[in-house]
Write a structure and sequence with these properties.
Elements (H helix, E strand, L loop, with lengths): L10 H10 L2 E4 L5 H17 L10 E4 L11 H4 L1 H4 L1 H11 L3 E3 L3 E5 L14 H7 L10 E7 L10 E3 L12 E2 L5 E2 L3 H11 L8 E2 L7 E5 L4 E3 L9 E5 L2 E3 L17 H5 L3 H6 L15
Antiparallel strand pairs: 1-10, 2-4, 3-13, 4-12, 5-10, 5-12, 5-13, 6-9, 6-11, 7-8
The protein binds 2-oxoglutaric acid.
The site of 2-oxoglutaric acid (AKG) has 10 residues, from strand 5, strand 11 and strand 12.
Length: 288
């Protein structure tokens, strides 16, 4: 893999790719050794917190990593939310006021199965209500950081190029337990992919630790299966969403927000994009 670095990133090309294909991979944004160090530390924290296998086998999860690290570790982890290229792309898509929706760790251990195809919040909500899905608004730009090397075999994020123009792939169950889809066309296209993707429509966002795939929230995507014997795959999802969107009532991301005390210790750039904190919802949400 070519050894690029952050300074060599071609932001104009990234912008065109994000528009056209719905995703772009920014390579080597963080030195690989530093990214691996982050990944190891996060696995340690998830182990201490018993966060592995809690919801699904061989799957570990930590909502908003900054709420779990020591303040002395902030400098190590801040590059995940201060990357200038990401902010450039996010600003272009979401405008002046955008929010950070969290920094959620996803640890996918050997043997973990792939996740279902979906688009990100809030698009599934529109489909599920039977409402028209807005075509000309970007609600979310998702960023999936690679803190280990990501390969097809160890469960790299899988994306369907150009699918941010194809409707919402989410599947849900109705009151009778029947599977529901946005429409028949989506059901058929999704079925082909979920049944083994014989035409190789999905691409794997592969890259070395320290790279990040930035994608439109409407892109059909899933976390791949980790079919390796012993390769850990650790990523961090840093979604950004429009300033006017509401983290709980609409985005369902309120449990991924920073704590008030954590926001207070962050640099101004981060404070500015954390419009809400987890305590805003403390009556109704589980503490993270
Ligand atoms: O690759 C991953 O860890 C999952 C990405 C994902 O499903 C998401 O961003 O919603």
């Amino acid at each position: 893999m070519a050894a690029l670095n952050r300074e060599k990133t071609n932001i104009d090309q990234a912008r065109v790719e994000l528009d056209t294909y719905g995703y772009t991979i920014l390579r080597d944004q963080i030195p690989r050794e530093r990214a691996l160090q982050m990944g190891s530390r996060l696995m340690e924290i998830m182990g201490e917190q018993n966060r592995v296998g809690e919801e699904r086998p061989r799957w570990g999860h930590l909502p908003c990593l900054y709420n779990f690290i020591d303040p002395s570790e902030d400098d190590l982890f801040l590059p995940l939310i201060t990357n200038p290229h990401i902010h450039n792309l996010v600003h272009e898509k979401l405008g002046d006021s955008y929010q950070l929706g969290g920094a959620n760790v996803v640890w996918r251990q050997p043997g973990v199965e792939s996740y279902g195809l979906h688009a990100d919040v809030p698009l599934g909500w529109f489909a599920e209500q039977g409402l028209p899905v807005p075509q000309n608004i970007t609600f979310t730009i998702q960023c999936a950081w690679m803190l280990t090397d990501f390969t097809y075999k160890n469960g790299a994020t899988l994306l369907l190029p150009n699918s941010h123009h194809m409707g919402i792939p989410n599947m849900w169950l109705d009151d009778d337990g029947e599977e529901r889809f946005m429409n028949e066309r989506v059901r058929l296209l999704r079925k082909e992919i979920e049944d083994g993707d014989p035409n190789h429509r999905l691409i794997a966002a592969e890259g070395m630790a320290g790279s990040v795939v930035v994608f439109h929230g409407g892109v059909w995507h899933r976390a791949g299966a980790n079919v390796t014997e012993n390769e850990q795959r650790v990523g961090v999802l840093t979604p950004y969403f429009a300033g006017w969107a509401e983290p709980k009532y609409g985005m369902d991301l309120h449990e991924s927000l920073l704590r008030d005390s954590v926001r207070a210790r962050m640099p101004d750039q981060v404070k500015k994009m954390c419009l809400h904190v987890i305590e805003d919802y403390e009556d109704t949400s589980k503490p993270c």
